Amino acid sequence: MEAVYTIDALDQKIRQLEAQQDAEWIAIKDEIDEIKENLKPLNLIRNTVEEINETVGFKSDLAQSAISIGIGFLAKKLVIGKTDSVFKNILGSLLQLAVTTIVSKPHHESSSQESSQHESSEE
Length: 123
Hints:
By secondary structure, the protein is an all-alpha fold. The chain has helices at residues 7-38, 41-56, 61-79, 86-104, 107-122. Helix 3 (61-79) runs antiparallel to helix 4 (86-104). The radius of gyration is 24 Å and the shape is elongated. The two termini are 38 Å apart. Residues 109-123 have low confidence and may be disordered.
């Protein structure tokens, strides 16, 4: 660190360090927002599906649809379980349909929509 000999130089150095601190805080807040977004359950599921697709090499829409349907089925079984109730079966099927539809949507579409909504709300 260089020595500062005048009041003007000291004031300038203080303003420079405050600006640097502000920029670092903004970067930290942006990183925290990104982490919170990635930890949402829907995004965790989508990221897992994308990783499976990349690892196994599923490129076709058919394979991705099968994975989405499988995740929807698992969601139904985890939430509803085995039941003889018609109401619970209908509710489970609706849940399965919703999860399958949400997971099958490409991640970049929802991210761009959310980021455009986020940007417009900041203005």
